[in-house]
Amino acid sequence: MSANPVSPSDPFRSLFKQIWWVVLIRGILAVLFGIVALVWPDITVWALVIVFAIYAIVDGVVLGAHAVRDRAALAGWGWWLAMGVVSVVAGIVALVWPGITALVLLYVIAFYAILYGITGIVGGLRFRKVPDSGWVWSVIAGVLAVVFGLILLIFPGEGILSLIFLVGIYAILFGALLIVMAFQVRNSAKRMGVI
Predict the structure, then answer these.
(1) In the predicted structure, residue 4 carries a pLDDT above the cut 50
(2) Transmembrane region positions (predicted)?
């Protein structure tokens, strides 16, 4: 028997059943985005902007829709919604400004990563008292996002190929952390008898 039993009336039972696949999709999208950036390092800035914009908008819509739909059971739903909004806004900025220069793209991605990371850290910390919620992975992914954003801000002149390489590596690591968190949440839901 678990040291932290969860009662059948616990609001997290249904949440865990629904949340794990959302986190998994976000992780897979991030890994795919990272692979695209690494496989085609000679990708133009315009193509990178479009790929980033699509990723950010889809990720933000999935996250925001989940937050709004499950707000009754999701204690920190506002942070999830904030992450979704930050993601969608970053994607829209990239689409509205397709002629964006490499340096401006770098700043958009850097600020996106920092804001996204902060909301991920705060959101993850809100779940720390929920048994097997995977909050640690959310915090680690948030810290990784903030560090990545700060590196881009501190070293902005390293060139577009360095930017693409950094974005690709970051996206793959971030996505892998989300995938691990998704399966941890899924296993927790199984132990609760929800799945």
Answers:
(1) no
(2) 20-40, 46-65, 77-97, 103-123, 135-155, 161-183
